[in-house]
């Protein structure tokens, strides 16, 4: 055997950049065809109600892009913008009206909410069958016990789709989920477990997060800390999914970065999602998928 062949044997395949933006575009295109077909065949126009309280500029940007994406996907959106001083009772009143409206299939209340409003009271006020965010305690419970009849939160669902696009079978892999919020980390861990992964969840009290990460074939990080995952945290060939969205100031102005030190991690990773252009666009596409599902469910119900 030539020495050249031997060195070729030990070379790792090149890192694959996981293009969430392109994946999401394809998904949204497919959803549009399905939405138009549902409208034509059953007369149901999938409709998403988007509720925003207050004037957080970042929330405003997200809400507008959700509304645009909904309409591009052949669905309808109705938006409700309430003032920042809205009371919890007033918000619950609007949600009750939307729950009772048969023309509304999905309800999304943009987070975060102002301090006078209890988040969990609001999320649990949404009818579970319209809870396209998958944040209602009933939908969280369904996922926790492995039932498939609830809505799955959009960001973890998008992460799983991206993972499976590079590795269709996840069974037996070691996965670490860094950050265990109710909206990303916890549901992500449950999905990975259902796929057959051995899952470690790390959190603020974890003694050595880096050591947990180094063992993992899959790293999903949703911690909200720019550059948290360093190059030497990534086992050679591991798949890295970066959920972080952090605004950082650079000499050239503000920039959005993830929770992974991307340039460091890239040479180690087998596949990695960029920020922007990775998980973010998938979140919106999955929201549309859940909205279509909610609309379909009203047709097949007896
Ligand atoms: N009830 C509720 N449901 C949510 O799903 C929800 C929420 N509240 N509150 C805020 C977060 C954040 N979120 C994002 C959606 C899309 C992108 C996205 O498409 N990002 C692009 C662009 C990033 C940029 O340049 O600004 C990207 O990553 O490529 C990001 C973030 C949904 N959220």
Automatic annotation (TrEMBL):
List the InterPro entries hit by this protein, alphabetically: Aminoacid_DH-like_N_sf (IPR046346), NAD(P)-bd_dom_sf (IPR036291), THF_DH/CycHdrlase (IPR000672), THF_DH/CycHdrlase_cat_dom (IPR020630), THF_DH/CycHdrlase_CS (IPR020867), THF_DH/CycHdrlase_NAD-bd_dom (IPR020631)
Pathway membership of this protein?
A: One-carbon metabolism; tetrahydrofolate interconversion
- Can you give the residue ranges of the Tetrahydrofolate dehydrogenase/cyclohydrolase catalytic domain? 18-133
Residues the entry annotates as binding NADP(+): 179-181, 245
GO biological processes: L-histidine biosynthetic process; methionine biosynthetic process; purine nucleotide biosynthetic process; tetrahydrofolate interconversion
Among Gene3D superfamilies, the record links this protein to: Leucine Dehydrogenase, chain A, domain 1 (3.40.50.10860), NAD(P)-binding Rossmann-like Domain (3.40.50.720)
Recite the UniProt keywords alphabetically. Amino-acid biosynthesis, Histidine biosynthesis, Hydrolase, Methionine biosynthesis, Multifunctional enzyme, NADP, One-carbon metabolism, Oxidoreductase, Purine biosynthesis
> What molecular function does GO assign, one term?
methylenetetrahydrofolate dehydrogenase (NADP+) activity
Q: How does it assemble?
A: Homodimer.
General function of this protein: Catalyzes the oxidation of 5,10-methylenetetrahydrofolate to 5,10-methenyltetrahydrofolate and then the hydrolysis of 5,10-methenyltetrahydrofolate to 10-formyltetrahydrofolate.
Protein family according to the UniProt entry: Belongs to the tetrahydrofolate dehydrogenase/cyclohydrolase family.
PANTHER family assigned: C-1-TETRAHYDROFOLATE SYNTHASE, CYTOPLASMIC (PTHR48099:SF5), C-1-TETRAHYDROFOLATE SYNTHASE, CYTOPLASMIC-RELATED (PTHR48099)
Tell me the NCBIfam families matching this sequence.
Answer: PRK14188.1 (NF010785)
Write down what this protein is called. Answer: Bifunctional protein FolD
| Gene symbol of the encoding locus | folD
């Amino acid at each position: 055997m030539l020495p050249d062949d031997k060195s070729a044997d030990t070379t790792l395949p090149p890192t694959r950049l996981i293009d969430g933006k392109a994946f999401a575009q394809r998904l949204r295109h497919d959803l549009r065809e399905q939405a138009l077909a549902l409208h034509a065949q059953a007369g149901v126009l999938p409709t998403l109600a988007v509720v925003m309280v207050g004037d957080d500029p970042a929330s405003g940007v997200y809400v507008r892009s959700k509304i645009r994406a909904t309409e591009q996907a052949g669905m309808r959106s109705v938006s409700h913008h309430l003032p920042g001083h809205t009371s919890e009772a007033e918000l619950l009143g609007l949600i009750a009206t939307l729950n009772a409206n048969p023309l509304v299939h999905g309800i999304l209340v943009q987070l975060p909410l102002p301090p006078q409003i209890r988040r969990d009271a609001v999320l649990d006020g949404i009818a579970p069958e319209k809870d396209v965010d998958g944040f209602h305690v009933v939908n969280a419970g369904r996922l926790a016990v492995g039932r498939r009849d609830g809505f799955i939160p959009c960001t973890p669902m998008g992460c799983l789709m991206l993972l499976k696009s590079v590795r269709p079978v996840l069974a037996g892999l070691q996965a670490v989920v860094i950050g265990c919020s109710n909206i990303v980390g916890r549901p992500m861990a449950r999905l990975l477990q259902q796929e057959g992964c051995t899952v470690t969840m790390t959190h603020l009290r974890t003694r050595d997060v880096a050591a947990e990460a180094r063992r993992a074939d899959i790293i999903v990080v949703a911690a909200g800390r720019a550059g948290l995952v360093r190059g030497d945290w990534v086992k050679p060939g591991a798949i890295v999914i970066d959920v972080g969205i952090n605004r950082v100031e650079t000499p050239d102005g503000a920039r959005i970065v993830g929770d992974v030190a991307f340039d460091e991690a890239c040479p180690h990773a087998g596949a990695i999602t960029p920020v922007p252009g990775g998980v973010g666009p998938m979140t919106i596409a999955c929201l549309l998928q859940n909205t279509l599902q909610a609309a379909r469910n009203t047709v097949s119900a007896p």
